[in-house]
Design goal:
The structure holds 2 protein chains of 2 kinds. Chain A is mainly alpha-helical. Helix content of chain A is 66%, strand content 0%. Chain B has 6 helices and no strands. Chain B is mainly α. Classes of the chains: A mainly alpha, B mainly alpha.
Chain lengths: 620, 212
């Protein structure tokens, strides 16, 4: 076995702290924090992009940015918020919490987990790197072909967008596989499926959505890549290609993706509400099955994004029907959440406020969504600000409020410190006010006929007052996010110490210390109910921490996930070099692909765990 | 040991080994990859404006390579049966046969691609060329990765004792190999046979049924 281990030329990393410890970590908690920090950084970038757009639109006829820059701004705002903020923020919670909630010591494949994160980060950086070569992508987050083929989009920015998204997609897929196996196989004794916390349940559904929804996107991106780089014909109308093919493939991915973004928030809220209502979740199986039904139906509604493309009456009727049907399980969840609070002793702490904000704002977004199931109504609203209002109520009012509830709820578990309650309440009320000031009037503007994606408008259109109001609202929203950052900074410096279970919650993660030991559970707990901490004493579940020599053997840090992820992103980036100089590009890609292959062999033949500290020293 | 790859089957686990469940999840996802490619190819059937389409197929040649690939699956089964009975020699022999048959299949495909290009069909020629080369190329890449994987197991197996964990290594590559085989059966049937012999509108409903 030693000989095999030596096939890995790199010695095992041994740094317990510092930059290298983070670069080589395979600990699900650290990877969760990396996802969270990256998502927060991109949240600020995507937010600044939105604020520039609002500055431009604050008054008619302004020229703060050009039409071209404006196109880049809405493209990168959308792409950033979907793929680099809400998805990784969800992933941050999956990573940190799922093993804790099911009583496991890590995910099923810790190195694959690190690999997923590095692919996500490198893909995001590759896409944003286009800024430094002179052009930001300006094709919308949906990148409709044939508008994105060579004939109409000549800048390299589209290639960066394409390649970056492809790399991030591979990262999401590998994370999806990992979490399916983790949740199905690593549950502690007694943690049956129907005893799992709701957040873990929703993660399982999201993982399945990812592994089935990303392949069509990956293939569509590959088609577009072949069209753009090798002059193939997939989206070439001159060769009689179907101009709707991209839209079909993109939205077969795109609609399940909407549920990838919202289900984690639903899971968080379903865990927060019982804690602050001091009673079990009403209709637990109903919420679980509603989530599963949403996951299934999510694959059958994609054409409601295409009602105005002329699919024909039967297709429109079928997809209008399925879109109406998918509202039902969502409604079931809402009623269950309300019934959970009914008769409970409600405690309005900050996480609870954000959960309530989620329920009310997501309800509004859901209702305008049901309106779009009606084809004639949708035809009126297509490409107007009404649509912008709708999906921001779902993605900000839904996903972001839900995820923020999660931040306030689990921050004490992750850091051992509380976030300020007073500042948190200010954050909530300002965010609720700013959010509604920004997006509620967009419904009205949409009905008045203001189209999406225009960089300016005429004063005579009569949209000026509402636009000014919206821009003011966006500043309020920005201030509220600033308060979150201040709150985080204060908490990290001198936050009030949190106990193991500051909220009196019931699920397994609250049984262990805050922050948890690197091995999570000293003894793998045995679970007897859905709410173990309410039904039995915490110390039954988690005995005091172990002395160092008795600590369980945990997966050792590894360089390979980083090496392989880097090689993959560089192989893709080699195509950009190839465009500039074919020979150098091919040589670069071959070297990088071989590095990746080498890395895979290193990874496979490297043992997951290292027996004792001496063994680590021996190799270095 | 907690991270042992042999998971005890209890009520809160599927009872499948983690790595085996992972490959199943991956194959489930891979179905969608191939599904998208095949669906696009069928969508574009009969829509090419210029150049060769299905008329270029040589069914006898492709039948031969299909037969070789199917026989490689038989060899794969015998390899797994070998190591499960503790016989590493048998396993290695059949693993090598599987890999060689896989390589022959890839060779046939390279020959076929070469012939098509000689006759004037490239991925740039028409819609058929784009979808055909991408779909079969994606499948060929799967076979090539499988061959590399099989040889890796072949050489690594000289350090093995015939234990449970090592038989799992063979079983997992076997699942992958059989899956890639089954996908080829679908491609051979739907793309090659129906493409070469099928009367246009009797095998598949016309595109206009779907409003296109």
């Amino acid at each position: 076995m030693v000989a095999l281990a030596n096939i890995g030329v790199l010695p095992r990393p041994v740094h317990p702290t510092g930059v290298w410890s983070w670069l080589t970590t395979v600990d699900h908690k650290r990877i969760g924090l990396l996802y969270g920090a990256t998502a927060l950084a991109f949240f600020i970038i995507g937010g600044i992009e939105a604020l520039i757009m609002r500055a431009q639109l604050a008054a008619p006829g302004q020229t703060i940015v050009s039409a071209e820059t404006y196109s880049s701004l809405f493209t990168m705002h959308g792409t950033t918020m979907v793929f680099m903020v809400v998805m990784p923020a969800g992933a941050a919670f999956f990573n940190y919490l799922v093993p804790l909630q099911i009583g496991a010591r890590d995910v099923a494949f810790p190195r694959l987990n690190a690999f997923s994160y590095w692919l996500f980060l490198f893909g995001a950086l590759l896409m944003n790197f286009s800024f430094f070569v002179g052009a930001f992508p300006d094709i919308g987050w949906f990148g409709y072909a044939p508008l994105t083929s060579n004939e109409y989009t000549t800048t390299a920015a589209t290639d960066y967008w394409l390649l970056g998204l492809q790399v991030m997609g591979i990262g999401s897929l590998s994370a999806g596989f990992n979490f399916v196996v983790t949740i199905l196989n690593l549950r502690a004794p007694g943690m049956t499926l129907m005893r799992m916390p709701l957040f873990t349940w929703m993660t399982l559904i999201v993982a399945f959505l990812i592994i089935f929804a990303f392949p069509p996107l990956t293939i569509a991106l590959t088609f577009l890549l072949f069209d753009r780089f090798f002059d193939m014909n997939f989206f070439n109308p001159a060769a009689n290609a179907d101009p709707l093919l991209w839209q079909h493939l993109f939205w077969i991915f795109g609609h399940p993706e909407v549920y990838v973004l919202i289900l984690p928030a639903m899971g968080i809220v379903s865990d927060v509400l019982p804690t602050f209502s001091r009673k079990p979740l009403f209709g637990y199986p109903m919420i679980v099955f509603a989530g599963i039904i949403i996951g299934f139906l999510g694959f059958g509604v994609w054409a409601h994004h295409m009602f105005t493309t002329g699919l024909g009456g039967w297709a429109n009727a079928a997809f209008a029907g399925s879109t109406l049907v998918i509202a039902v399980p969502t409604g079931v969840k809402l009623f269950n959440w309300l019934a959970t609070m009914w008769g409970g002793s409600l405690l309005f702490k900050t996480p609870m406020l954000f959960a309530l904000g989620f329920i009310s704002m997501f309800l509004l977004g859901g209702l305008s969504g049901v309106m779009h199931a009606v084809v004639p109504v949708d035809t009126q609203q297509q490409d107007t600000y009404f649509i912008v209002a709708h999906f921001h109520y779902v993605l900000v009012g839904g996903s972001v409020f839900g995820l923020t509830a999660g931040v306030y709820y689990w921050w004490p578990k992750m850091t051992g410190k509380m976030l300020g309650e007073r500042l948190g309440k200010w954050h909530f009320w300002l965010m609720l006010a700013g959010f509604n000031m920004t997006f509620l009037p967009m419904h009205i503007l949409g009905i008045l006929g203001m189209p999406r994606r225009i960089y300016t408008y005429d004063a005579e259109a009569g949209w000026s007052a509402w636009n000014a109001f919206i821009s003011a609202g966006s500043l309020v929203l920005a201030v509220s996010i600033l308060l979150l950052l201040v709150n985080i900074a204060i908490s990290l410096r001198r936050g009030e110490k949190a106990g193991d279970n500051p909220w009196g919650a019931a699920t397994l993660e609250w049984a262990i210390s805050s922050p948890p030991h690197h091995y999570n559970f000293a003894v793998v707990p045995t679970v007897h109910s859905r709410y173990p901490l309410w039904d039995e004493e915490a110390n039954v579940l988690e005995p005091p921490p172990l002395p160092p020599h008795e600590e369980p053997l945990m997966p050792a840090p590894s360089y390979w996930p980083l090496v392989v992820a880097f090689a993959i992103v560089m192989t893709f980036a080699g195509l950009l070099i190839w465009q500039w100089h074919a020979l150098i590009g091919i040589a670069f890609m071959v070297v990088m692909a071989l590095t990746g292959l080498r890395g895979i062999y290193g990874w496979v033949f490297e043992p997951l765990t290292v027996e004792a500290p001496e063994a680590v020293q021996a190799h270095s | 040991m907690y991270f042992d790859t042999t998971v005890d089957a209890h009520r809160t686990s599927t009872g499948l080994n983690n790595r085996k469940l992972l490959i199943w999840a991956f194959l489930g996802s891979d179905v969608l990859f191939f599904g998208t490619l095949i669906a696009t190819h069928l969508l574009y059937r009969g829509r090419s404006l210029v150049g060769h389409t299905e008329d270029i197929f040589s069914i006898p040649v492709t039948s031969a390579s299909t037969f070789i690939l199917l026989m490689s699956s038989l060899a794969m089964v015998l390899a797994l049966s070998g190591i499960q009975r503790g016989n590493l020699q048998t396993m290695r022999f059949w693993i090598a046969i599987t890999a060689i048959f896989g390589s022959i299949f890839v060779g046939f495909q390279m020959f076929e691609f070469h012939e098509f290009v000689q006759e004037g069909l490239t991925p740039r020629t028409n819609l058929f060329g784009s979808t055909f080369f991408t779909m079969t190329g994606f499948h060929g890449a799967h076979v090539a990765i499988g061959v590399l994987w099989l040889w890796s197991i072949f050489f690594a197996s000289f350090r093995w004792s015939a234990g449970e964990r090592n038989s799992l290594n063979v079983e997992i590559v076997g699942l992958y190999w059989h899956f890639v085989d089954i996908v080829w059966v679908v491609i051979f049937g739907v793309v090659y046979l129906v493409g070469a012999y099928g009367a246009e509108d009797r095998i598949l409903p016309p595109v206009s049924w779907f409003g296109g």
